[in-house]
From TrEMBL:
It comes from Coptis chinensis. InterPro entries: NAD(P)-bd_dom_sf, Sacchrp_dh_NADP-bd. Residues 37-160 form the Saccharopine dehydrogenase NADP binding domain. Pfam families: Sacchrp_dh_NADP. This is Saccharopine dehydrogenase NADP binding domain-containing protein. It comes from the Eukaryota.
Length: 424
């Protein structure tokens, strides 16, 4: 794992990250150093990657991997080493779930999919057993349902963050930091926030994320235009976005993602949207075609989508082998004085970066950054403003490009020529 050093220029509030090759171990406060962390879905890609990242960042943590399949559990525990164990748990069974939370300081919920799920069983169990909570949810309805448990979490004195992965998750914190910096630099009022995401192939992900992508194609996209909520067709509104060094220009399309709503509400930006694109280019065409040809009722039906996933999965694996799994997020903020600032986060491997990002949230909760209640990542009670820099530093370990608060022309691969202050 690359070591990162973070430098903050106080005058310009510009954050730049430099990579170095030594691993960086953390020294958690004594009271949290030996915490027990349960990772539900720890036998899966996101959960397994989170467990590995936590074990590297903070080897004194005791990691409990939760899942239904003992064989997969034993395999990951072998990788994690002696400070780990497997617990067999089905999150649909409240008794088994609550038993797994006994004596655990923090639960990381990565046992998706979150789409079309009726109840927040894990958060409810965390509240009733008084266990701190983080999830990697990427579904708007689920995140709103989690948020509706806020008062119960406050009453139980439990800190919880929902949508705390890479995107959503780190991207929300990047947006919050762009907004904060724009205010401190007197750039006027934030007017428009755009989240753009790119992942090559399926990002090395498994059938769950494939199912997630198909389920999202069945959902109308909610975006905000000058304060007004608007509904748009999924995988429409294509933009060609420059993701900068190591990634370049990619086509991205509108999707219904939870960070649009939370950023609009929490950060008070009137125009917000989120787009996603993949490679090779024909996958984007395939997604567009699915949206146009398959009725949305079918794309919203979990069982039917599972069948589609089984059909497509072998082809996805073959193409993944060629496409790789680069990931990039670009967050653009436009302010009322016309100035634009950009944050970019790019990594060669989504399967690694998603774990490092989730681990950064888990550590923030363990270190006491999060107030009792259920929070979105951009809320200062979720990750304290003073702790955002450390969170971004940890999450961006191993990135090939991480920049914040830059003008677009400074980060793009093909900047327009600037002659005498005029863009040609
Ligand atoms: N926020 C973000 O940045 C972000 C990024 C990527 C993915 N995600 C989300 O993360 C989730 C996981 O993705 P993934 O690629 O890791 O999927 P995955 O590889 O299929 O892993 C899911 C894991 O959940 C476990 N699981 C499923 N149902 C369970 C149940 N009823 N009880 C206990 N464990 C259960 C499975 O373990 P067993 O089969 O062993 O039980 C499996 O290992 C998805 O919902 C995806 O949308 C979020």
């Amino acid at each position: 794992m690359a070591r990162i050093s973070l430098q903050l220029n106080p005058t310009l509030s510009r954050t730049t990250i430099k990579e170095s090759s030594e691993p960086k171990l953390l020294h958690l406060p004594n009271k949290t150093r030996n915490s027990r962390v349960l990772i539900l879905g720890g036998t899966g890609r996101v959960g397994g990657s989170t467990a590995l990242a936590l074990s590297k960042l903070s080897p004194d943590l005791h990691l409990v991997v939760g899942g239904r399949n003992r064989e997969k559990g034993d395999a990951i525990v072998t990788k994690l080493g002696e400070n780990s164990e497997f617990v067999q748990v089905n999150i649909d069974n409240v008794k088994s779930l609550e038993a797994s939370l006994y004596d655990v300081d923090l639960v990381v919920h990565a046992a998706g999919p979150f789409q079309q799920t009726e109840k927040c069983t894990v958060l409810e169990a965390a509240i009733s057993t008084k266990t701190a909570y983080v999830d990697v949810c990427d579904d708007t309805n689920y995140s709103m349902r989690a948020k509706s448990l806020h008062e119960k979490a406050v009453a139980a004195n439990i800190p919880a963050i929902t949508t705390a992965g890479i995107y959503p998750g780190v991207s929300n914190v990047m947006a919050a930091e762009l907004v904060r910096s724009s205010k401190s630099e007197n750039m006027g009022e934030p007017q428009r926030l755009r989240f753009s995401y790119y992942t090559a192939g399926s990002g090395g992900s498994g059938p769950t994320i494939l199912a997630t992508s198909f389920l999202l194609l069945g959902e109308e996209v909610v975006a905000y235009n000058k304060g007004e909520k608007i509904k748009l067709k999924p995988y429409s509104g294509m933009l060609n976005v420059d993701f900068g060094k190591g990634i370049g220009k990619k086509d991205v399309y509108l999707l219904h993602l939870p960070e649009v709503r939370s950023a609009h509400e929490v950060l008070g930006v009137p125009t917000v949207s989120a787009r996603f694109g993949t490679a090779p280019f024909f996958w984007n065409w395939g997604m567009e075609a699915m949206t146009n040809l398959i009725p949305s009722e079918v794309l919203r039906d979990k069982n039917k989508v599972q069948k589609l996933v089984q059909l497509f999965d072998p082809l996805v694996r073959v193409i993944d082998g060629i496409a790789g799994e680069r990931v990039s997020m670009r967050v653009d903020l436009e302010c009322s004085n016309g100035r634009e600032t950009v944050g970019i986060f790019s990594h060669k491997r989504l399967s690694v970066s998603v774990g490092t990002s989730t681990a950064a949230f888990a550590l923030a909760v363990l270190e006491g950054s999060t107030q009792p209640g259920v929070w979105y990542p951009e809320e200062p009670e979720g990750v304290a403003i003073d702790d955002r820099e450390v969170l971004l530093q940890r999450a961006s370990q191993g990135t090939i490009n991480f920049v914040m608060n830059k003008a677009p022309w400074m980060v793009e691969t093909d900047p327009k020529e600037l002659i005498f202050g005029i863009f040609l």
